[in-house]
Amino acid sequence: MTVSSITVPRPDDWHLHLRDGAMLEGVVGYTARQFARAIVMPNLTPPVTDVAAAVAYRQRILDAVPEGMDFTPLMTAYLTDNSDPEEMRRGFAEGVFTAAKLYPAGATTNSDSGVTDIANIRGVLEVMAEIGMPLCVHGEVTSADVDIFDREAVFIDRILAPLVKELPEQKVIFEHLTSEQGVQFVGSAGENVAATITPQHLHINRNAMLVGGMRPHAYCLPVAKRERHRLALRRAATSGSSKFFLGTDSAPHAREAKESACGCAGIFNAPYALESYIAVFEAEDALDHFEGFASRHGPAFYGLPVNEETVTLEKRDCVVPDEIDVGAAKLVPFHAGETLGWTFVG
Ligand code: DOR
Ligand code: ZN
Hints:
Helices cover 35% and strands 16% of the residues. By secondary structure, the protein is of the alpha/beta class. The site of (4S)-2,6-dioxohexahydropyrimidine-4-carboxylic acid has 10 residues, from loops.
């Protein structure tokens, strides 16, 4: 059957980097155009660790949303070795924090203040489990002896599996899943464990980064892995399982910060996120599962209503520009220079 358009409840982005200041002002409209809500990552400098900082950041985001657009940022608390369980309890009760974010220290951009040992946040996790506050997890170990391509799998064995066993009532979102071990773990874990999947990890494997030259715009963390991992992710995302849902991990860095001797990790995919995802569902002959992944599984896991508004994508070519000038910086979007087969019409 050929489909010429698809209308679904307005999706949400369950993992997003909006940055701050001029970059925030330049990028937030791209997300607000397609998504109703987004889980906003707290890895600013300094990180968003307490309620007051999250309230202030939320207001800066709202102030930056272009006129006439309706967008709700859902804030997260950046966990550190010194996080105060009572601050989490208060932020969650007041509706400021939707979730807390675990960055293993040193795992990625602005994670230096992250958690050095999971034992250090045991008290926080106990309170979160008690009050039903979800934990968003960057699932990579950082030990120098672990190969970067194995860091997700080792994180499952060393950190996540024991954690889920000890605190089975804790809601965990294994973010930006990149490996077949991750798919297997989430798929066989209890109902409190879910995962987000980015567009890039559905489209590219590590060859995109390394064949024919080093391609910094395909570099993000966790890094794209071998083809069999990409295929496992595509099966999971398009399977219809409510454990897997949309989270772009759109992470803007100026072109020159990526095209550098030590290029930043992160792919700016917000402008064509839905076009990118739906291409995968079409190729996998799973367009009937797109709505669940994009619009329903995330709200269900977070205990939030599905958005009432709808959005439509049409089966018509959409050319992704080579570069997008957001004022604060020139950004190279995911799929730069490619033509995608779907167009977001709002
Ligand atoms: O590629 C990434 N970029 N992965 C992350 O975990 C962080 C993000 C960023 O903030 O740039
Ligand atoms: Zn991220």
